[in-house]
Structure formats: structure tokens, C-alpha cells
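Encode chain A's predicted structure.
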Amino acid sequence: MPPAKAIKGPVVGVDLGGTNMQIGVVSPDRALIGESKRKTKADEGLDGVVTRLISGIEEACASAKVNLRELAAVGIGAPGAVDPEEGVVLEAVNLRWNDVPLADILTKRMGVPTFLDNDVNVAVYGEYRMGAGAGSKHLLGVWVGTGIGGGLILNDALYYGHFMTAGEIGHTLILPGNPPGSRSLEHNCSRTAVVDRLVRLIRSNRKSVLTKLTEGDYEGIKSKTIAEAFRRKDELTVEVVEETAQLLGVAIANCVTLLSLERVVLGGGLTEALGDPWVELVKRHARKFAFPERCKKVDIVESKLMDHAGVYGAAMIAMDRMNNR
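Encoded structure for chain A:
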């Protein structure tokens, strides 16, 4: 882990999602001293989202008793493809953005240096600096929620690759013989995919406690609903979750084999809801398929920072980039 450096003033970390934005003020000694949350409301367009974001930053600063002018920097994790060097959101489908120079926009609007990265990258970096990835030089983070995102730490640094897009494990193909739309890891192992598979099986006359839990409204199946059915040992849910864990474990094993990684951190809404049993299932399959024998010792753990990983990670990235200027 890079040594902590002195930085003057607190830093804001922002986890910007398609539905919600979470904002935190982090002190130079890495304490979270103020927070706010906002709905993103992507349908209001870029200017609307930016205005809400700045309002959220101001509210978080007020709760931390910090003036906006006292901030050393702002770090943002944004969904989709991002160019962190240029501070540009290349493509964010759920925000309906293309080629948005978000870092420059916010720097000019607030007068505070602003740094941008991918949302899962910042979450993984937060875990690396302050959570379940601490002490690991070679780390993969896999966030399983609505979709699947990933981030890589190699040789004690975020790894971006030549095209600045490394870590997109969710878009890797695991079942290339399947019809289009059902080939990638995200198509098969995200919470969205798990729900789709459960609903299809229930509608094909498979019995499940999910019918009772949702009162037949399958749109109401969330990560917590799946976790409750799994806890009750619902046969259908257990079957689907175990098959999903196997596929995810195989994909992780491939990454471990390729890069000889020492640790994998699992995060995201589905991981948080299912907890240790899910992590143990994924670990068992990843260790089974990793090669060679020594790679089967890979450490696979759950996120410690949970939904604060993105806020902390974005703040840490902003601190580091300010210090490296």
C-alpha cells in the first residue's frame, strides 16, 4: 500500500450511480465526517445531475461543518467507461451520457480540483486502502449487483491497461455458445440475471417461497428477497444461487490463473445480502478451478466497507492524485 501523505484540507468522495448518488467528506486522517445522499434523476439531463451533485456536496460539507472553499479535492466514481486521465465519462448507459468531461465541469463549477474514475474501480481502491484488500499487492474486486463490475490492483496500483478499461469482468464471455444476451458473466451472474432465471423457472411451474414473499409480484424480487429465500433453504433459490456461484467462481479462477492474484474481494448488493454463505460458495468453486495448485490458496473475502467503499475509494484517489501532482 502506498504510504499515507499529508494533504491540506478534507476531501469529498462521490459514488455516482444511475439511481442514487452517495457523497462523503473525508478528513486528512481518513475519517468520514459528513455525508449526504441524493437521487440521481438521470432523466433531468446532464445539467440537472450536476446541479444535484453539487447540492449534495454542499449538504455533506455542511454536515461536516466544512466550507466548500476548504476542500482540497473532490473524487468521483462514475458508472460505465471512464477515461480517468482526461476526467471524461466515455459512455454511461444508465445516465445516458457520452463523452462528458465531468471532472472539468465540476472543477469549473465549484472551484475545487476534481478527479474521476470508474465506480467499481473506486470501490475496489477503497477496499485496497482501507478495507478487505488492505495489505494485498495483487487484488481483484468483483461487485455483483444490478450488473457486474470489476477492478484490478496490480503491484500496489490500480491497473487500467492500454485502453484504460481494465477490470470489466462482467462483460467477459463465459458461455459463448448461448444466444446473444445470455453469454457474458453479467448476463448470467448479476442480481438481474438471477431474478430473471428465478422468475422464468417459477412461471414454468417450479415451486418457490418467492411467490409468497413477493405476493406474486415478481418485480418485487430484490437482493434481500433472494437472501431470505436462500436462508429459508428454498429449493429453487438454492439451486439457482449455487449455479450462479459456480459460474462466478469459474470466471474468478480464470483471472487468478491468468494474473496469479493473491486476493479477491466480493462486493455489491447481492454479495452484501447473501453474505458469508455466498462468499464461501464462490470461494469453493474459484479454488477448485484455479491453476496451478498454489493458486488454489487465493483468499476470497467479502467487502468490509460495504456501501461506503465507493465514497472512501473516490476520496482516496483524489487525495493520491493531489499528492502526486
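The domain at 11-126+308-323 is CATH 3.30.420.40 (Nucleotidyltransferase; domain 5).
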